[in-house]
Amino acid sequence: DSDLSMRTLSTPSPALIFPPNSPGFQNGRGSSTSSSSITGETVAMVHSPPPTRLTHPLIRLASKHQKEQANIDRLPDHSMIQIFSFLPTNQLCRCARVCRRWYNLAWDPRLWRTIRLTGETINVDRALKVLTRRLCQDTPNVCLMLETVIVSGCRRLTDRGLYTIAQCCPELRRLEVSGCYNISNEAVFDVVSLCPNLEHLDVSGCSKVTCISLTREASIKLSPLHGKQISIRYLDMTDCFVLEDEGLHTIAAHCTQLTHLYLRRCVRITDEGLRYLMIYCTSIKELSVSDCRFVSDFGMREIAKLESRLRYLSIAHCGRITDVGIRYIAKYCSKLRYLNARGCEGITDHGVEYLAKNCTKLKSLDIGKCPLVSDTGLEFLALNCFNLKRLSLKSCESITGQGLQIVAANCFDLQMLNVQDCEVSVDALRFVKRHCKRCIIEHTNPAFF
Prior knowledge:
The chain is of the alpha/beta class. Among the domains are: about 35 residues, Monooxygenase, CATH 1.20.1280; about 150 residues, Leucine-rich repeat, LRR (right-handed beta-alpha superhelix) (Alpha-Beta Horseshoe), CATH 3.80.10. The protein is about 35% helix and about 10% strand. It has 18 helices and 17 strands. Strands 5-6-7-8-9-10-11-12-13-14-15-16-17 form a 13-stranded parallel β-sheet, with no helix packed on it. A two-stranded antiparallel sheet has the order 1-4. Helix 15 links the parallel strand 13 and strand 14. The radius of gyration is 27 Å and the shape is globular. The protein starts with a helix and ends in a 7-residue tail after the last strand.
């Protein structure tokens, strides 16, 4: 496992993916027997390409029946590659150890557009180093085919692993490192600076990440031509709870092409941060600020500046938002399709009325735990939003069966209705079922089945 052995042009072992004591792996070799639960740490190993023929005397004694079982070898190369394309990274590495033909097919560049590694015990830094080195065999120092790296949940990923990706994968378009809490801003800066085509970045749960920006060197080098811009369109920073308004300001100034932004449980974000966001990122279609408790109606006024471009908005559990904020959204964002306002207790029937009359193309609405919404609000929805497919009224204390019947009689395309913890009768639920044949009803009434 020394650096010298890493220089051999050979196949990474499945030990890159599985710990040595995992099922199907014993003593560094594949095994058909199962072992105890996964223990120990994953080790990166390299092996030479398999020989063309197996020369073990026991194998030469194989029966005719056993030889006939290898019909897969009769398939042409393009069919084998198509089969291999459905395998995850770890299984593809295993296939490369079967024989020389499989080795060559398994390392076909077309199969390595994506690397997907999972597991808390995997030595993911080492795995990425070995895999990228092997993929750079034909194009020294760069993996021109690799476009997607998904290592979500690999808690042992560190900045070293991201540095490897940044240095070797200039064509990277998608990176998911959610739950990898050991990575820092510096490593993320390197990735976005050295991978100019990166469009999709998921750093949710990475608590040390407080900003997205170019490195200082890249900023100086690119500013005359690119204006310090980053091409990211999809950014998920859910649970990056250290993110503050200043960090969001920097993100907005650098990532002006954002169309999808998720800031769930970024509890330090305020209306000021949203003001920065709307100055630079005018193309946002989907935005989530759920559980951002400092966001208020003033923040909704800023978000409303997106106008008809906004299609998805989640403001769940933002307790400072009232009918005033909903009215801003309803007035300017007429093409809104999805709204999650669960737990916004300041919303009343008046807010639902504004929404229903202006956002008539609404397809999904969650107003659960809004105790001031009653059957009156549901009537406005039913008479204006005929395309409604999903409606959640969980824990709405003022909702009755009469309101549900009005909705069911007008919204025939309803596919999901959540009335858990609502005082609605069995007859009302049966009425919904009769009129909305495809509707799945989530309820807590034991008499309805």
